[in-house]
Amino acid sequence: MGKVACANVLSDLYAMGVVQCDNMLLLLGIAKELSNTQRKVVIPMILEGFRDLAREAGVAINGGQTVVNPWMIIGGVATSVCSANEVIFPNQAVVGDKILLTKPLGTQVAVNLHQWMQLGTPSWQLPKISSPLMTS
């Protein structure tokens, strides 16, 4: 979980072509339902994973924040100082640019839909649309 969270934080920089991270902060929300025994086992493993991947990427974690939370959260902030010509801005894409997908598009939408269906919320149902093109 720690490695995945660190990769997610760094991917925001990498997605814009920034390959050097100057500063990283780690944000940790510890689930209040965890017992002290569970915390002593789980938290060090998560932190170790986050630190290991940061070290592999050549990034120092220079601080962060830890809070007790209703649910477990791990994330962070990565920053870099660079000039504008070192950044690939999404609104500057041109025909012929290559896009590298690291996972299928739409996975989060599919996860949300599945959760809504499991919960039975009306959010997942499509609204009824009347159109002259649609026949019954």
Layout of secondary structure:
Layout: H1 2-14, E1 23-31, H2 36-56, E2 61-69, E3 73-79, H3 107-119
Parallel strand pairs: 1-2
Antiparallel strand pairs: 1-3
Helix pairs in contact: 1-2
Essential attributes:
136 residues, alpha+beta, three-stranded mixed β-sheet, 3 helices, flat
Structure overview:
It is a single chain. With 136 residues, the chain is of the alpha+beta class. 35% of the residues lie in helices and 18% in strands. The protein is built from three helices and three strands. Strands 2-1-3 form a three-stranded mixed β-sheet. α1 (2-14) runs parallel beside α2. The longest helix is centred in the middle third of the chain and has 21 residues, at 36-56. The chain is flat, with a radius of gyration of 21 Å. The N and C termini lie far apart (49 Å). The model has no long low-confidence stretch (mean pLDDT 85).
Strand order of the largest sheet: 2-1-3
Binned, the helix content reads 25-40%
Number of strands: 3
Q: Between the first and last Cα atoms, what is the distance in angstroms? A: 49 Å
Strand % is 15-25%
Number of helices: 3
Oligomer class: single chain
Spans of at least 5 consecutive residues whose pLDDT stays below 50 are none
Find the structural class using helix and strand composition.
alpha+beta
| Secondary-structure element order, N to C | HEHEEH
Q: Measured on Cα atoms, how large is the radius of gyration? A: 21 Å
Largest sheet: 3 strands, mixed
Average pLDDT metric: 85
The outline comes out as flat
